[in-house]
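Researcher: Let's do a round of design. I'm pasting the structure tokens now; please hold your answer until I've finished.
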């Protein structure tokens, strides 16, 4: 391969990944997960709201908004701030939302040391949920997504293969709300700004999977959630939850396809 072509391919890859991670649609269909062919496609004209990193003191307000608006969502939970709202796990399940898995402590340096450390951390989370007797889906969102700068592709691939072997499905997103200040803006980001960004980034998308956070200090996310829901209702969208059967959006598979590994 000559140098110019190599450079073009590399530039295209970076552009694709950058755009995708920012929530811009770059592929028309969902990406097949690793080794998991029998999955259910997301329903067209349906929004999947997802909340990462909680529960925290913000979760209660978000649950209230979802209840008032009659909308179900998916929560990728941690144990990090569990003391702020210990009943949250049960409350999420009781209200018919999907309780899914993120990690135990969200400490990148510990999580991604090697392919075993994430598994160990995830095991601590599932053990705690089992102990609480709270039902959860075998559905995981990796901290930072399935392709991130905190872990090497080799480690991520090993983690994904292990998750697959253990019967877990893994799910990223296609619309980042930026409620956690992705561009370094001071927190909290005004609710209107978050809602406008989601509206802009989901334009033309049939199945927006929106990344939000129910962790502290993103205190404007409950109000942003209300505005986001109202926007999608006006646009004629329905709402649904993700399950372990949902056909995933997976950055890693996209990267695998593009690099033809
Ligand atoms: Zn996270």
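Researcher: That's everything. Go ahead.
Model: Designed sequence:
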């Amino acid at each position: 391969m000559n140098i110019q072509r190599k450079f073009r391919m590399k530039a295209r890859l970076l552009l694709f990944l950058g755009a995708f991670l920012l929530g811009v649609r770059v592929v028309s269909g969902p990406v097949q997960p690793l080794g998991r062919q029998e999955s259910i496609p997301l329903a067209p004209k349906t929004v999947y709201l997802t909340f990462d990193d909680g529960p925290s003191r913000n979760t209660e307000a978000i649950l209230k908004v979802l209840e008032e608006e009659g909308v179900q969502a998916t929560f990728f939970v941690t144990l990090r701030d569990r003391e702020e709202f210990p009943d949250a796990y049960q409350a999420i399940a009781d209200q018919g939302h999907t309780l899914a898995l993120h990690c135990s402590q969200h400490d990148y340096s510990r999580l991604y040391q090697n392919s075993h450390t994430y598994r160990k951390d995830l095991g601590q989370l599932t053990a705690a949920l089992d102990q609480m007797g709270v039902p959860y889906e075998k559905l995981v969102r990796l901290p930072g997504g399935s392709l991130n700068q905190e872990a090497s592709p080799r480690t991520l691939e090993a983690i994904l293969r292990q998750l697959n072997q253990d019967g877990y499905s893994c799910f990223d997103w296609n619309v980042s709300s930026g409620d956690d200040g992705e561009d370094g803006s001071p927190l909290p980001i005004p609710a209107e700004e978050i809602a406008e960004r989601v509206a802009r980034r989901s334009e033309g998308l049939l199945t927006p999977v929106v990344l939000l956070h129910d962790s502290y200090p993103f205190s404007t996310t409950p109000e942003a959630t209300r505005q986001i829901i109202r926007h999608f209702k006006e646009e004629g969208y329905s709402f649904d939850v993700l399950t372990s059967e949902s056909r995933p959006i997976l950055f890693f598979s996209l990267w695998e396809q593009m690099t033809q590994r």
